[in-house]
Amino acid sequence: MLDLSRVxxxxxxxxxxxxxxxxxxxxxxxxxxxxxxxxxxxxxPGQDGxxxxxxxxxxANRNKSSVTVDFxxxxxxxxxxxxxxxxxxxxxxxxxxxxxxxGLDYETVARLNPRIVYCSITGFGHTGPSAAKPGYxxxxxAAGGLxxxxxxxxxxxxxxxxxxxxxxxxxxxxxxxxxxxxxxLRHAEATGQGQHIDMALMDCQAAVLANQAxxxxxxxxxPGRLGNAHPNIAPYQVFPTADGHLVLAVxxxxxxxxxxxxxxxxxxxxxxxxxxxAQRVANRDALIASLxxxxxxxxxxxxxxxxxxxQVPCGPIQTIDQVFADPQxxxxxxxxxxxxxxxxxxxxxxxxxxxxxxxxxxRRAPPSLGEDTxxxxxxxxxxxxxxxxxxxxxxII
Length: 397
Prior knowledge:
Keywords: Transferase. GO terms for molecular function: CoA-transferase activity. InterPro entries: CoA-transferase_III_domain (IPR050483), CoA-Trfase_fam_III (IPR003673), CoA-Trfase_III_dom3_sf (IPR044855), CoA-Trfase_III_dom_1_sf (IPR023606). This is Acetyl-CoA:oxalate CoA-transferase. It holds the Pfam family CoA_transf_3. The protein is an alpha/beta fold and about 400 residues long. The protein folds into two domains: about 1-205 and about 330-395, 3-Layer(aba) Sandwich (Rossmann fold); about 235-315, formyl-coa transferase, domain 3, CATH 3.30.1540. The chain is built from 17 helices and 13 strands. It has helices spanning about 10-20, 55-60, 75-85, 105-110, 135-145, 170-190, 200-205, 210-220, 255-265, 265-270, 275-280, 285-295, 300-310, 320-325, 325-330, 375-380, 385-395, and strands at about 1-5, 25-30, 45, 50-55, 65-70, 90, 115-120, 195-200, 235-240, 245-250, 315, 335-340, 345-350. It has a six-stranded parallel beta sheet with strand order 5-2-1-6-7-8, sandwiched between helices. Strands 9-10-11 form a three-stranded antiparallel beta sheet, covered by helices on one side. A two-stranded antiparallel ribbon has the order 3-4. The longest helix has 24 residues, at about 170-190. The radius of gyration is 25 Å and the shape is elongated. It starts with a strand and ends with a helix.
């Protein structure tokens, strides 16, 4: 795979495929690299006391080779066109039409390699009135409806639209891109025919509105912000306890009865206003007003003991340090450490895919900038030391 992408959506897709065994050649700008190498603090420790790469870069770039090529120069673009015939996949996230002037657009690349799967990731796609606009996750969370249903409800303290705490439009697009690439590869293997994949953050954000979008399409009612409450289920939200907070996730009427019994709230179990989920949603305000004082009578851990014993879904709100100290997360080996060739140790979040025969493997840490340039150019193109030295002297690599 030739990875011309940077920042998050594209690198997330290529990292996922790299975890599953793909050979990823990440092309970066000489001396600068992927933008996220500078998106800190925090930063890794560098050599000789210098500042290393930002932690951000490490979240999406393991299992890749880093090759520095300036393809804005004809000689650099020519190097990539020589590599393309040996590639199965190319991933890029430049503006629509942005690679055509370098001869790296899909039409040109497909003539060099008709079986290549070429995945473009942009903010708004390659068609439509917004195709030329730059796309950033924050803007797409806003324009794509997510922020309109995220945050405290109007009329309550702190009410305003909120973005999610991680770049989910980028991440979902990266995952959808991974799925599309795998499907296109199956087609290419069967037919010898590659294709162009046109992935847009806006499309993916609209898709993952999921039940909120379905609610609107069916009812015509525009969903609003409900804070931590659920639009279709109640009670399904955060409640304050005697010493913190508890997420209560009552997903069906049987769990509601089990909750009431465990909480000593028999009167609510018998209340006709709350007999079914639909009635609990319709009478949400009265329901929550009844539950809040009751849940303040015990601690979070106390409620968890009582409710878990009654098989009522509930849980604490953990900070990120608590997540990685959680016995379940530890048992599932969701943290791993990998060292670079220079010995720099990098802590990583493991791939969550668990497979019995072909599990994801972290073969190498996120690379330092350009550490594989000479090796890959020798192996892929058969360049000599003198040719590589000349390219470096001319600023091509």
